[in-house]
Amino acid sequence: xxxxxxxxxxxxxxxxxxxxxxxxxxxxxxxxxxxxxxxxxxxxxxxxxxxxxxxxxxxxxxxxxxxxxxxxxxxxxxxxxxxxxxxxxxxxxxxxxxxxxxxxxxxxxxxxxxxxxxxxxxxxxxxxxxxxxxxxxxxxxxxxxxxxxxxxxxxxxxxxxxxxxxxxxxxxxxxxxxxxxxxxxxxxxxxxxxxx
Length: 196
Fold this sequence. Notes:
Structural class: mainly alpha
Low-confidence stretches: 1-6
Mean pLDDT: 78
Radius of gyration: 18 Å
Largest sheet: none
Distance between the termini: 33 Å
Number of helices: 8
């Protein structure tokens, strides 16, 4: 049995990230990640940020627009389809407790919840569906989503614009080790979530 070749996977991903099609994939993934998919958007954005330093601002823009449009879809699911699709999605991904907790916070300061959810690793689909279900004013939701998602992706763009070559060097030199560390952390994270 051979072990995964993280170096080869890294090179393959970087090569694909330089294509024009990669931006379309990013737009689609960011749209559906904000409403229905369990894929973390960083799976797509980080290779794109690393592939070409000159495109980091375009990548941030595409990710922001796709994410905000996906947030509108999530908002609509919470507003119009919660009892059917919304509840099923949250239960399927195991986010029902987070959703219930967010509902209490929306009564106090919904715009703040959207801001925090848009910047932090909290699954944004939970925030968007909860916003619609809580009937948060749509203009407030949109403004908070635009600001928070822009800040999140611009922070990544700045990081990779200034430190991208160092990150690429580390991945090129120690890609296999870093791949195993990331894989171990993912497995540990899933185990923690499963047992809690």
